[in-house]
Amino acid sequence: MPDSRPPRILVAADKFKGTLSGPEACAAIADGLEDALGDRIEVATAPVADGGEGMARSITEAHGGEWIPLTVSDPLGRPVEAGYGFFHDESGLRFGVVEMAEASGLWRVEEKERDPWRASTFGTGELMRAAIEKGADRLLLGIGGSATNDGGSGMALALGFHFFSAEGDVLTEMPADLEKAVSLYGPAEPLPPVEVACDVTNPLLGDEGCTAVYGPQKGIEPDRFAAHESRLAHLVDLVGKAGADASKVPGAGAAGGLGFGCLAFLGATLRPGFELVAEVLGLEDRVREADIVITGEGKLDGQTLQGKAPAGVADLARRHGKPVAALAGIIAGEAGDPLARRFDFHAAVVSGEISAERAMREAGPLLRETARRHAEAILALAKGTSHD
C-alpha cells in the first residue's frame, strides 16, 4: 500500500557566523519551508556544529539542557562572563559541555594586548571544574580559536593539578611559571571522562607543531619560537612517558597544545568534531528517518568540504541514500563543482538583488525567504526518495 504521509524534512544547519546561531538558522529555514508548503511536509530541526564555535550551545539546546553563566578568567587572568552547557541524556548520564574559546579564545584579547607567553587556559579549566562540581559524569570539550600556547597547563592548574618548584613551592601561574616547575601531582579526586572535539592533526612540537603553525596568529614572533618550543618540551618532560607519547598524537598541537594537555593530564579522547557532535545528537537516526536533509552555514566554500558540519551532514545523508540540500549565506565560486557533487541542491541568500552587507544585516528573514523560494525544488527532491 503506498505511503501517503507527507515527506519528512530534517533541517540540520550549522551557525551562520556573526549573524545566526545553529538553532536560529534551522528555525529560519524550517519557517520558510512551512510558509511555502504548509501541511504538505513534516519538518524537524537538528542544529549541528563541527566542534568549533557554537558546539556547546547547539548540543545543550538540542537536549533541552541548561546554559550556565559564570565569571572565569580570560587568557590574561581578567574576570569575564562565560558559560557552559549541562544536560542529562535518556539514560540519566549528566554531561557538561565546554568550548575553550568561551574563556580562552583569541577573540577575548585585543591585538595590542596579546601576550602568548602569559596567556593561559586556566579559564577553560574553571568552566570544566564548574561542570564537574555540578555533577557532570562526562565532559565534552570543543577546542579551537585559542589565544594560548600553554600546552593545557593552565587548564590543569584549574582542575587541581599542582606544579612544584625545586624549592618545593607551589607554583600558581601557568604557563608563566612553567619553566620553574620540576614536579607535578594530580588532583586527589578522579576526574570524569573527557571527549575532545578536535579537527586538526598537528603534533605538539616541531615544524608542524602548535608554535610553528599557529603561534604567529596569537602574536608569537619568530625570534620567540624557540623559547615557546622549549617551554612546551619542558612540560612534556615534566609529565613523563605519558607526556612523550601524548605529544606525538595527531591533534596534540590543537589550541596551543590544549589537545596535548587533555591527553596527558586527563586521559581524554580526541575525536573529529562533527563525528562527536553527531553522535551526541543522535543525528544518524534522525537522518535515517528523513526523506531529505537540509544543511547549511554562513559560507559554503572549499573549507566546507574539509571536515565542516555541512559536509559531515551530506556524508551522513549519502550513507543512508537520502538527498541533501544546502542553503548558505554565500556560496564561493571556486567551490562550485565540488559542492555540486556533494549536495543535490544548493542556494545562497546573497544574489544579484541581495548584497552580502544586507544578508548579514537581515540574516534571519532573508534565510527564511530563501528557503521559501526554493521549497518546491526541495519538495521534489524529497518525493524522489523511497519511504522506508
Structure summarized in a few sentences:
Helix content is 38%, strand content 19%. The chain has helices at 22-37, 55-62, 100-104, 122-133, 153-158, 210-214, 225-239, 241-247, 254-266, 273-281, 283-289, 309-319, 336-342, 356-361, 363-373, 375-383; strands at 8-11, 42-45, 66-73, 79-88, 94-99, 138-142, 162-165, 170-171, 181-185, 194-197, 269-271, 292-295, 299-300, 324-328, 330-331, 345-348.
Model description:
This protein is of the alpha/beta class and 388 residues long. It has 2 domains: 8-49 and 284-383, Glycerate kinase, domain 1 (Rossmann fold, 3-Layer(aba) Sandwich); 55-273, Glycerate kinase, domain 2, CATH 3.90.1510. It has 16 helices and 16 strands. The chain has a 6-stranded mixed sheet with strand order 3-4-5-6-10-11, sandwiched between helices. Strands 2-1-12-14-16 form a 5-stranded parallel sheet, sandwiched between helices. β3 and β4 form a beta hairpin. α7 crosses α8. The two termini are 12 Å apart.
CATH third-tier fold name of the largest domain:
Glycerate kinase, domain 2
Distance between the termini: 12 Å
Can you give the helix content as a percent range?
Answer: 25-40%
Number of helices: 16
Instruction: Give the overall average pLDDT.
Output: 92
Percentage of residues in strands: 15-25%
Second-tier CATH architecture of the largest domain: Alpha-Beta Complex
What is the domain tally? 2
Number of E strands: 16
Within CATH, the superfamily of the largest domain carries the name Glycerate kinase, domain 2
Note the main sheet: 6 strands, mixed
Return residue spans where pLDDT drops below 50 for at least 5 consecutive residues.
Answer: none
